[in-house]
Amino acid sequence: MAEIGRWRACGAALLLAAALSGPLAMAQSEPAVRDVVVWDVPALDQLPDDDFGRLARYGRSVVEATYAHIGPAVTDEAARFAGNNLACASCHLEAGLKKFGLPLVAASADYPAYSTRSGEVASLFDRVNQCMRRSLNGRPMPEDFRPMRAILAYLEVLSTNVPHDAAIAGAAAGRMPELDRAADRARGAQVYARECADCHRRDGLGVRRNETLPQMGYAVPPLWGDDSFNDGAGLARLITLANFVHDNMPNGTSWVAPTLTPPDAWDVAAFVASQPRPRLAGLERDFPDLLLKPVDAPYGPFADGFSQEQHRFGPFAPIRAEIARLKAERGAIDNPNAR
Ligand code: HEC
Ligand code: HEC
C-alpha cells in the first residue's frame, strides 16, 4: 500500500493518468517510458528452494491450473473463489509468457496504476481481483490468502527485469486494423464452424478433461455459457477479443503468422461476443468518467450518442472521433451511476 501512497503524492502523474485510458496508454505516453524489447524472464525452476521460491512456483501452478486450487468445485469450500473452471492461463497464454497472448511479464511493473474503470489507483492485488470477479466470474481473494500471495510472487518474478512503467514488446493482444463496417455475427458463425468448433465445440462449451470432475478443468475452455467469463470481462469487449483471437487462435497460432484474416477475426469475435454468458451486476457504475470508457465497452451508459449495438460491434472510428470532440469540449463527463 506504500506504493499507492507514493502515487497519490504524485499529483501530476495522476492527472496525466486520468486523461488516458489505462496502464498501457499511460506507459506509451509518459516521456520517461523505457521500452523492453527483449524479454528477460528468470527461470522459475532455478529460484532457490526457499519460502519465496516455493511460493512463486506455487503461484505458477495457480495461474496454470486455477480450477484445481480455487475453482468452484474444489474440495475445500472456503477456497472456492473462482466462479468458473477456467485458468488464468486459458487467456494469459503460456502462463503469461506469450507475446500478444495477454502476457503478464510487465504486470508487476505496471502497478499501481490509475484504473479508468474504478476511478481509483489500483494495486496489482486489486487488478488480479478484477480478473477474479470478471474473467473468472467469481469473488475477490483476500490479500493474505496463500494462492493470492503466490500469484503476486509469481508475477513479481516475471517482472524482475522490467523497469517500472516500461512498455514491453508483445503487450496485451495486439492491434490489427479495424473494419469500417460493423463486425458481422452471421459471417462470424461460418468462420466459427470452420475454424473453432472442432476444438471449442459447436455449442461453445469446450471440452472438459473429466465430465464428472470439473475441478480438473478443460482441455479446451468454453467460450460462452455458464462456465465462461462474464459480460464485464476484458474478453467481452470486441477489440480485445478480436485481437486475441487473431494473434492466438486456433490455439498454437503466433502473432508472427496469424491464421485468420482480420475480417474473419472481427466477425468470429462478434459471433462469440453475442453468445450468452454470465452477467455481472453493477456494470453501469464502471467508468466514473464516461469519456474514459473504452469505445467497445458492451454496456452503457455512454457519453456519446451512439447505440449499444455500435459500441458492441463497431465501427469504432466514428465513436472515437466523437469522444475526442467531447473531451476537447467538456474535459470529463460524470457517470450518473458511479458511487
Ligand atoms: C477470460 C480471460 C481471462 C482470465 C481467465 C484471466 N484474465 Fe487477467 N486479463 C484478461 C484480459 C483480457 C486482460 C486485459 C484487459 C484490458 O485490456 O484492459 C487481463 C489483465 C490482467 C492483468 C493486468 C495486466 C497488466 O499488465 O496490466 C493481470 C495482472 C491479470 N489479468 C491477472 C490475471 C490472473 C492472476 C488471473 C487468474 C486468477 C486472470 N488474470 C484470469 C483476461 C483474463
Ligand atoms: C486446436 C484447438 C483450438 C482451436 C481450433 C481454437 N481454439 Fe481457442 N483455445 C484453445 C485452447 C486449448 C485454449 C486455452 C489455451 C490454454 O489453456 O493454453 C483456447 C482459448 C481460447 C480463448 C480464451 C479462453 C476462453 O475460454 O475464452 C478464446 C476467446 C478462444 N480460444 C477463441 C477461439 C476462437 C474464436 C477460435 C476460432 C477462430 C478458436 N479459439 C480456435 C483451443 C483452440
Automatic annotation (TrEMBL):
UniProt signal peptide: 1-27
Keyword Acyltransferase recorded: no
Database matches in PROSITE patterns: CYTC
Alphabetical keyword list: Heme, Iron, Metal-binding, Signal
Record carries keyword Manganese: no
Gene3D superfamilies found in the cross-reference section: Cytochrome c-like domain
Residues covered by the Cytochrome c domain: 183-276
Positions of transmembrane segments: none
InterPro entries in alphabetical order: Cyt_c-like_dom, Cyt_c-like_dom_sf, Cytochrome_c-type_DH
Name this polypeptide is given: C-type cytochrome
Organism: Ancylobacter koreensis
